[in-house]
Amino acid sequence: MDIMERIQKQVDSAAIVLYMKGTPQFPRCGFSSTAVKTLASTGVEFAYVNIFEDQEVMQNLPAFADWPTFPQIYMNGELVGGGDIIVEMAEMGTLKGEMENATEKFNNK
């Protein structure tokens, strides 16, 4: 399996996947920390991938969905964007609903 197939498998493995620097318990950059706090504030479960644990993922993820920075958030296999996008969604009051919809859709596959 090549790296793009492996990333696709990760993205498809959960309703919501956060690619981040570090872990939710120990984020290793401010943007990843903000993304974790924002997602966690909804109470909806999400998966994560620590890009520091896999250099191939870290090097190839920006090309996967043509998004150059980390963190990256995927819902139901689709790139939502980076931390700034989910912060905006939270401020608009749409993040929790989108996450709940993604989880429901994923669970009903």
From TrEMBL:
> What is the name of the gene encoding this protein?
grxD
What keywords appear on the UniProt entry?
2Fe-2S, Iron, Iron-sulfur, Metal-binding, Redox-active center
Give the highest taxon in the source lineage: Bacteria
> By what name is this protein known?
Glutaredoxin
Upper lineage? Bacteria, Pseudomonadati, Pseudomonadota, Gammaproteobacteria, sulfur-oxidizing symbionts
Cross-referenced Pfam families, in alphabetical order?
Glutaredoxin (PF00462)
Q: Which residues bind [2Fe-2S] cluster?
A: 29
Q: Which family does it belong to?
A: Belongs to the glutaredoxin family. Monothiol subfamily.
Glutaredoxin domain spans which residues? 16-80
A Gene Ontology molecular-function term? Answer: 2 iron, 2 sulfur cluster binding
SUPFAM superfamilies assigned: Thioredoxin-like
Q: Does the keyword Iron apply?
A: yes
Q: Does the keyword Cell inner membrane apply?
A: no
The organism named in the record is endosymbiont of Bathymodiolus septemdierum str. Myojin knoll
